[in-house]
Amino acid sequence: MHTEVSTGAALWPACLDVLAQELPEQQFNTWIKPLGADLADDQSKLTLYVGNRFKLDWVRAQYASRIAGILESLHGQPVGLELALAPRAAPMRPASLTSTRPAGAVAAPVAQEPLSPPPAAEEDSAGGSGFRTRLNSALTFDTLVEGSANRMARAAALHVAGAPGQLYNPLFIYGGVGLGKTHLMHAVGNRLLESRPGAKVLYIHAEQFVSDVVKAYQRKTFDQFKDRYHSLDLLLIDDVQFFANKERTQEEFFNAFEALLAKKSHIVMTSDTYPKGLADIHERLVSRFDAGLTVALEPPELEMRVAILISKAAAEGTEMPEEVAFFVAKNVRSNVRELEGALRKILAYSRFNQKEISIPLAREALRDLLSIQNRQISVENIQKTVADYYKIKVSDMYSKKRPASIARPRQIAMYLAKELTQKSLPEIGELFGGRDHTTVLHAVRKISGERQQLTELNQQLHVLEQTLKG
User: Fold this and answer.
1) Of the N and C termini of the chain, which has fewer Cβ atoms inside 10 Å?
2) pTM for the full predicted model
3) pLDDT tens by residue, 234-252
């Protein structure tokens, strides 16, 4: 959604909203959010202030043309874009203070010039001991909407926070992008510090652990590295799939893992796949990952998506009508992050146009997203994708054949058709060779139930969903 913005003061915040939706969160926080902005009085030029020369070159190379395009789309005419180093005497005015980015997501500190963009740092709070935790205090159990998609993982995380070092060690949480894995980890750390303010808690992204291993090698500071990691009471480590093919990092993480378990400290990890699905990670490490409790986070069901939208709108000081929340939830199905992006678009569109939030307004605000969805995901597309994946003919989807090698993929395709399209059960049945809607309902319930129990099926469905959503 790019609607013309006539108010000059709103131009850069509106551009931020679009970029926040388009870019991965760590890129947005690292490169875009810290920018200062100054718009000329006649709105003909926008100057962005960058913290150092390296960042200036990177923003120019990677983002400048896209920013210029968004500005023109929002303003209705070209806007000159200039990048400049922030003057040292006058501190930068963070442009993102007026953004609708959710509270708690903060910008990364200026780092040494890396070879590639580093992950965004989280809020660098300190526990009672003065130990830097890197926890984001806004991500708690209270701000996490509960539903069947996350109930088991949430219960396990609560147990760990209340009794670390006992059951479920390590706790391994896996699922697709934007389902709340990171939120759960921060919630564990924040809850533990409430009851034990002196505990040594560290949240870290796996890429940062890799970086710390490299630095320890370069500087010959492995004693300090071990003191830091082996002394923790709770280690929260995000996206362990990034350890793939990094032999020395895996070795050091194995050592830290063993040391922490020996002293009854707790480890919580996340990944985009279950432990045995991790590629290029040593078997002895995978077996450690799988030794505690492994829980999945699923895409949120409809009622949970509605609750999330209403809750997050309220956190922004806006009341979202329930019928609008249902409309958005029916059309944005994949993950919480996409829901947040849709909500930001609707809130921005409502403010810019000074209109109440309604279904027509939401439809207009999300028209780009809806058109992409309608174009890409059809029952026919689902049938073809599932048939290719399970190596059967597309014609088998609507044939009367019933061997398991065909019936099973057919049921999976019916389940995905219900989850990813707006078609009714009778309509789906018709597209599967004129089957009755009760047949479709049986397939949907069967696959949905088995998804909760069978790790391999759940992983296959994740792959199919990501393929279909492009």
Assistant:
1) C
2) 0.56
3) 999 999 998 988 999 999 9
